[in-house]
Specification:
By secondary structure, this protein is mostly beta strands. Helix content is about 10%, strand content about 45%. It has 3 helices and 17 strands. A 6-stranded antiparallel sheet has the order 3-4-5-14-9-12. A hairpin with an 8-residue loop joins strand 4 and strand 5. Bound molecules: 5-phosphoarabinonic acid and manganese (II) ion. The site of 5-phosphoarabinonic acid (PA5) has 13 residues, from strand 5, strand 13 and strand 14.
């Protein structure tokens, strides 16, 4: 067994994970496929397609069993045709691998789906959400003003199954509502 050394990172309020190894950005144009838009709606979009929808800062470790990955996600405020900005969403390839999301700043919704079961958890600063590995998960901002930022920890050998979500799309969306801010429908 490899001898490993302890280390620490700084989870910043602005969402940057100081000491990260990988940084990725998903722009509006990369995410349109997740929004089920008609061609007409796509052509009429008022959002800048080069705008960032979310960013991830990730710390890498080897993907052996027992290791833990960690990252921060920053989802920017905004919506597409009243459907709030969100992550692609995935399920873990190894459905025995669970995950924890911890709210750092801003507010949003964690959508969870397993077959025809649906649940959601409202996340804001200090809220820790536990995701069993057999639930597909996606996070969505509920704000038009400030970024929704959360920190995640999960087993390094979980794997990401994005195909699963393509074949089993989320049945619920978080939609802008003039009266209540947002509605899950
Ligand atoms: O591991 C996770 O579940 C998160 O860190 C997500 O990967 C992150 O929020 C980005 O979402 P997605 O991987 O669905 O694009
Ligand atoms: Mn995950």
């Amino acid at each position: 067994m490899n001898l490993r050394n302890p280390f620490h990172l700084q989870v910043r309020e602005d969402g940057i994970l100081e000491g990260y190894d990988e940084h990725s950005i998903k722009k509006v144009k990369d995410m349109l496929v997740c929004y089920n838009l008609s061609e007409i709606e796509r052509d009429a979009l008022e959002v800048d397609s080069e705008q960032a929808m979310y960013e991830v800062y990730k710390k890498n470790v080897s993907n052996e069993r027992g290791r833990l990955l960690q990252c921060t996600t920053i989802i920017y405020p905004g919506h597409i045709n009243k459907h709030f900005f969100m992550t692609r969403g995935h399920r873990h390839v190894d459905t025995n691998c669970d995950e924890i999301y911890h709210g750092v700043s801003g507010e949003g919704i964690l959508l969870l789906q397993r077959g025809d079961e649906f649940k959601y958890i409202y996340i804001k600063k200090g809220v820790s959400a536990y995701i069993p590995g057999d639930w597909a998960h996606r996070t969505v901002t509920t704000s038009l003003e400030s970024p929704f930022i959360f920190y995640s920890i999960w087993p390094a050998d979980s794997g990401y199954d994005y195909e699963y979500v393509k074949n089993n799309p989320f049945g619920k969306n978080v939609v802008l509502d003039e009266k209540n801010g947002f509605v899950i429908q």
